[in-house]
Amino acid sequence: MADTLWGKGLPLDAAIHRFTVGNDPVVDLALAPHDALGSAAHARMLARVGLLKDAEAKSLVTALKALHDEARAGTFVIRPEQEDGHTALEAALVERVGEPGKRIHLGRSRNDQVQLALRLLLREEVLTLGARAAELAGAFLDFAQAHKDVALPGYTHLRRAMPSTFGLWGMAFAEGLLEELEALRGVWARLDRCPLGAAAGFGVPLPIDREYVAALLGFSRVQRSPIDVQNGRGRHESAVLGWACSVAGTLEKWLWDVQLYSMDEFGFLGLPDAYTTGSSIMPQKKNPDVVELARGRCRELRGLAHQVEAVAGGLPSSYHRDFQLLKSPTLTALGSTRELLDVLTRLVPALQVKADAAARASDDTLYAAHHAYALVAQGQAFRDAYKQVGRELVEGTFRPDRGALTATHLGGAGNLGLPQAREELAASRAWLDETHRLVADAAGRVWTV
């Protein structure tokens, strides 16, 4: 295959070519802008160590910036016969700058080239997903603030348990996302090491400067072991998707609650008409399809993460072509997570709280534990108070003082901890903004000729 990077003029069966190429000409379009950025940094490094002339490096960086912009705009094309984005990028360079385009691959392999492009893409996605998770956390905090004193039955085993509020309920999901935003810094640290220079997994016998490329691209360190660079295929993807699945685990519970509480039988929540769909046969239906599909997306994410783990696992050290199959589920999962966070950020403030229905469902039995505590405050041992309340419930004589006790400790219904939560959210947003600025500044340095 004359157009492939590895072609040696020997024939290749067309069916084998189609099978091995797979959907890379489509999937690699998402990697193309990152591949161009990484290639520009590589060209600058080659000139720095004397393996390229300065003029050659400048012409390559200028052409790569144009290709980067085309890829961002969706006009960059990867032809099926070109096999992948790396081949298409190099072919475009040769076409635009001539002989220097043939020198861009000096000192690297497609293996570390794609690892760098993936790492750059994952860094960008982590910051994007983090910003969207922060927006959703803010929406939950606003919901909790607006409904902090509105009664809502608390359930365990899907049975009425203790008094709660819509504020306490909304705060739970804000808190979960704040924890995920803290965890995201650990995910970022795993991505914050540059793989370029590992080549096929054993380095190259050339005086390349890996530290320079890492610093130029805004990485804090080099991923030192070239073998580990290849062994890490799937590991970093799994770390990002594992974070996304953890976020989805929190959101799935909220979606289930919304589905239940918006049923006619509960009636605690309503969805605006614009957030429902209809039936082709039943005129009265207003279906919460957005809730159900978002809930399905949470499970879909787990499936895609398992797919990445299954492909990457069970292999010996170094590179294997199996790794090609990691890209599609990874990119699909990232796109699905973006959409999920965007849709729920719109849905949370649109929920209609039905306070009267929730108040009617908050009957006296919810206050059984509260009444036992009130008796303890009068001097009874808790076990004696528990038994007394139990007898009153059985006998039908239970009449609690609903206002006797309120949970005023941090996190309780009377003290949601909203100021502290907003401080934590502001700190996470500040970290995301600063990290995004550092990455953008690094890209600016790469493109400056």
UniProtKB/TrEMBL annotation:
Pathway: Amino-acid biosynthesis; L-arginine biosynthesis; L-arginine from L-ornithine and carbamoyl phosphate: step 3/3. GO terms for biological process: L-arginine biosynthetic process via ornithine. PROSITE patterns: FUMARATE_LYASES. Keywords: Amino-acid biosynthesis, Arginine biosynthesis, Lyase. One of its GO terms (cellular component) is cytosol. InterPro entries: Argininosuccinate_lyase, Fumarase/histidase_N, Fumarate_lyase_CS, Fumarate_lyase_fam, Fumarate_lyase_N, L-Aspartase-like. The keyword Cytoplasm does not apply. It holds the Pfam family Lyase_1. Coiled coil: none annotated. It catalyses: 2-(N(omega)-L-arginino)succinate = fumarate + L-arginine. Its EC number is 4.3.2.1. Signal peptide: none annotated. Residues 34-303 form the Fumarate lyase N-terminal domain. One of its GO terms (molecular function) is argininosuccinate lyase activity. This is Argininosuccinate lyase. It comes from Myxococcus xanthus (strain DK1622).
